[in-house]
Amino acid sequence: TNISILLPAHPCPINGNEALIKWPWKVVRYTKDSVLNTYAGESGRGTEVPQYSVDQILQSQAALAINLTLPEMDLLALRSQASIDSRCTETTASVKPCVQDYCLFNLETDPCEIKDLSSTFPSLVGALTHVLGGYRQIMVPPVPNTQDPRALPHNWQNYWAPWADTTGTGMAPPHTPLTSTLVICLLLLLLRSL
């Protein structure tokens, strides 16, 4: 069974939202009414967005880091497969907020989550919320949302990377471009001496 938890099924102390996908169905519930709970509108397709450039993708730092080498046609095919062809035409004003009650969406026919089908398929909502309840029983509450500025990518050559030492007793010193260069130079000197 293809089941994925989108948000913590355990009532999250941070926001309390929960959702579950069992393709093609998604059941979702929010704890507060918020503009963030609904479709935000089209983005990434207008004239304000630069034209898609396969060359820029292949020359990006991310592509270089993972040694990405794909033909242009393969990249364009992947982009096409990842795009939702049907644009969301209904406005958020027509969407019932999923606050306190669960909403049910068919992601295959309604990828923009506009039409709530919970009243049409109440037994399916019950089955999916039962699965959520099972996860709620075994999930560990999330760790408090604290941020450590030492983890920021600018400390690690602009990559997200582990920053805590392996013993868990403290933080590893920041990995700066200067220390990287020194380590590489020392390694090269060591190799030349062999």
TrEMBL record:
* Molecular function, one GO term: sulfuric ester hydrolase activity
* PANTHER family attached to this UniProt entry: ARYLSULFATASE, RE14504P
Keyword annotations from UniProtKB, A to Z: Calcium, Glycoprotein, Metal-binding
**Name of the molecule in the record:** Uncharacterized protein
The superkingdom of the source organism is: Eukaryota
* Source organism per UniProt: Homalodisca liturata
Q: Which InterPro entries match?
A: Alkaline_phosphatase_core_sf, ARSB
